[in-house]
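Structure first, sequence second, as always.
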């Protein structure tokens, strides 16, 4: 039998795409290496799943070209995601920064979506890695020989275990290489490259940053506070997080917490991290306030910051001086130490600790319906596309939005 569409990847993108296409009467095969669908979805948000966000906008995403997002987020808005949750029987709560979390385990969502796929007539091929994938006989598909040739020339073909699947259209919803411990890898991204697509190699995002062993704030693990994070290249400082202030957590190896996970979306090796430890309280105002004049500098800081952090940040020669005694130069130096603490991270905790990966199939090679400009009938959706969301339900939202968009383009 020839399927109308074969979909590789039963994450949120592949599941919604399969369900919607099958509901429209298409014959759909859904293949996944795992025995259970939605394995990453099930662990999202600490098992609760931050599914979507009230504030959906292009600046909540990173990628080389995020132009397509505006229309994608209109086609599949937060309201559409909430409709999906209603339909699945998944109640939710709204938390800070517009984050929408499910009130049942995230695995519930994966299970219900899989059931709906089943009801719509999707054929599942679970516990089987798609291999020997070939495209119809176009010039570009000659490159797929590297992945094996099955002899078909008019259809997409692939093997799921021993089963050969033949389909008129192919959807690659295989996610990124974040979390290799779950089997994630970049094989299908590399296949896209052999099919003529520009690709941006995956890099870990939403990931803790590692600091040099001897950095001045070593030993503060466990301390957490609200900060604003900037990124410095040369003399230029950017403060890219649209939410501004979030919490930072000192870890054994560096820093983590929402502020850092978000900053990691833009961080690249060689970029310095700038930390504003008192983002809502200008240091110079505090120093100029007559009421603080008699305080020792370290006492003033310890009233506003965790004591050990205050000690570590305060220049030693100023710590035991009275605030009123400080000249203009010293006040500026102190303000800089608190508002512009600058450090070059030695790296990230890597793909194993990353909640997502930036990079993927470049949008320049895809139409608005996420169909390949090189191979008709080939579609990409979800995290394998070069769009990664900030912390806040943006990645699952993109997976659903892009999966829904692709399903509409399938014939
Ligand atoms: C710990 C953690 C927490 C997270 N929390 C959140 C959160 O709260 N909110 C949020 O928005 N995002 C969160 N994310 C990110 C989010 O889970 C992903 O962005 C999302 O699941 C991507 O969906 P997808 O369908 O594109 O890919 P995936 O969910 O990764 O699914 C892809 C599937 O393709 C399968 N596959 C790949 N290659 C093959 C092959 N050759 N053959 C067969 N199958 C294959 C894989 O087995 C996988 O099941 C989190 C991620 C992690 C790791």
């Amino acid at each position: 039998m020839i399927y109308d569409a074969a979909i590789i990847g039963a994450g949120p993108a592949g599941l919604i795409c399969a369900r919607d296409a099958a509901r429209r009467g298409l014959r759909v095969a859904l293949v996944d290496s795992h025995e259970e669908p939605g394995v990453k979805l099930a662990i999202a948000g600490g098992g609760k799943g931050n599914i979507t966000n009230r504030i959906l906008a292009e600046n909540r995403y990173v990628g080389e070209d995020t132009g397509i997002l505006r229309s994608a987020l209109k086609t599949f808005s937060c309201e559409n995601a909430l409709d999906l949750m209603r339909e699945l029987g998944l109640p939710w709560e709204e938390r800070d920064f517009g984050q929408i979390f499910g009130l049942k385990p995230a695995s519930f969502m994966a299970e219900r979506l899989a059931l709906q796929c089943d009801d719509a007539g999707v054929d599942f091929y679970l516990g089987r890695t798609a291999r020997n994938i070939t495209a119809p006989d176009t010039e570009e598909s000659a490159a797929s020989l590297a992945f094996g040739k099955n002899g078909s020339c008019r259809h997409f073909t692939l093997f799921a275990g021993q089963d050969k699947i033949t389909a008129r259209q192919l959807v690659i919803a295989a996610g990124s290489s974040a979390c290799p411990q779950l089997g994630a890898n970049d094989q299908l991204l590399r296949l896209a490259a052999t099919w003529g697509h520009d690709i941006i190699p995956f890099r870990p995002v939403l990931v803790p940053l590692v600091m040099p062993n001897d950095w001045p704030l070593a030993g503060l693990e466990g301390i957490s506070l609200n900060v604003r994070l900037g990124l410095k290249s040369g003399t230029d400082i950017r403060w890219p997080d649209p939410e501004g202030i979030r919490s930072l957590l000192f870890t054994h190896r560096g820093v983590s917490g929402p502020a850092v996970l978000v900053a990691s979306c833009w961080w690249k090796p060689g970029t310095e991290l700038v930390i504003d430890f008192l983002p809502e309280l200008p240091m110079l105002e505090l120093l100029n306030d007559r009421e603080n004049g008699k305080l020792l500098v370290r006492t003033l800081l310890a009233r506003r910051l965790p004591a050990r952090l205050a000690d570590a940040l305060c220049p030693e020669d100023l710590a035991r001086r009275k605030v009123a005694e400080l000249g203009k130069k010293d006040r500026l130096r102190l303000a800089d130490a608190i508002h512009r603490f600058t450090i070059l991270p030695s790296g990230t905790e890597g793909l194993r600790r990353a909640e997502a990966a930036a990079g993927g199939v470049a949008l320049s090679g895809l139409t608005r319906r996420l169909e390949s400009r090189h191979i008709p009938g080939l579609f990409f959706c979800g995290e394998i596309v070069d769009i990664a969301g900030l912390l806040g339900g943006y990645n699952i939202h993109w997976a659903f939005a892009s999966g829904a968009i692709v399903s509409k383009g399938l014939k």
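Margin note: The radius of gyration is 25 Å.
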